[in-house]
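Regression test attached.
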Amino acid sequence: MAQLQRIAIAPSQLQQEQIILTNEQQHYLVRVLRLRVGDRFIAMDGKGKWWLAQLETEQAQVLEPILVKTELPVSITLMVALPKGNGFDEVVRCCTELGVACIAPVLSDRTLLRPSPQKLERWRRIAAEAAEQSERAFVPTILEPVTFNSALTNNVATHSYICEARGDYLHLNNVIKSDTSEIIIATGPEGGWTKTEIETAIAAGFQPVSLGRRILRAVTAPVVALSLISAATEV
Amino acid sequence: MAQLQRIAIAPSQLQQEQIILTNEQQHYLVRVLRLRVGDRFIAMDGKGKWWLAQLETEQAQVLEPILVKTELPVSITLMVALPKGNGFDEVVRCCTELGVACIAPVLSDRTLLRPSPQKLERWRRIAAEAAEQSERAFVPTILEPVTFNSALTNNVATHSYICEARGDYLHLNNVIKSDTSEIIIATGPEGGWTKTEIETAIAAGFQPVSLGRRILRAVTAPVVALSLISAATEV
């Protein structure tokens, strides 16, 4: 199965078999996803059209259109504070089944330990297995764990949400925009995000949202968030 | 925390501090939930009103109204084919967090093993812990595992859905009725329900639904279904 990274593009970026990349997209492809000139990736227009593309420097060459049946029409990045124990294995497995495009593990203020490089390999293997079992066309990207502030800088989308259990926020279900091409959803650690983290996220353009009136565990929240976004964008 | 069972009633059943029980409700309270005369339970009208009630024979005495903040306005029964291994622990934990009222484990045609009585005790302990951690007002009921046909007979609701991955069914998100007081959602075992099971469920009034285009594991499907129903009924 192809392990290709995905980015969302605006239809206006596609000109004569070339994709004109924005500065943010160049940064994301090269600095965050670590692609080099000549590497292939997938460009999605958020309306169900996908193309295989090859990275040049400030643009990319369209190689061919791709037909997908089991992939979501929208690119979802899950920014998730690393939970304690082995709980993250299950988050990777479930969210891959639900169609996530990219998982960005985050070291939050309340994250207890920094995972070993072996963990990252393990998560990527789990994602590959889950993508195959759930009959997806592509394996989601699992980024290296970074600090919350770095994650906010690295990942940019037109619609970004941060889930917070305590607080009088609108329910995610009431704010999901299904007519978008890229969504970032952030879920917190045991004990929740700190007040500073929520404020920093809001300053970075994230909308705080609720996942309901009960307190969800750090490993349940991402699965609930992905369930709601997948259903809202696929149906 | 109160370990009280819940049933949904129609407003017309409440007359002068008495709840006139239907034959189905009497059967459910006595034969399925194993309540005796004098036992207490919760009656919900599906519009956010709850009462503590005491079972008499064909009716129940209303003792007092109950104020709830973290419980769903609808009574959800999850009818779930037992997955292999310890996967059911996680199903009980997550679905309790999401507000399920009753979990009915089912021995389907493709269920491999019959669980020991110790398992049932274990699941009830997990449900109690998860209810407390998620700040729920009540602990969901975990019924004894029964055959699929018995489960169809025991559990009756105005809206019943059975999830099936393969098949050209409407997405659950498109059919959930939020203006109801009770919902049954059934999710299958590894490999899915058999054709006969789907046909039997449809004959019993269940509507077959999809949870999306990817194949979900038996332990993921209930969490996704509960996420969607909780959000649709709570928001």
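Expected vs. actual: identical. The radius of gyration of chain A is 17 Å.
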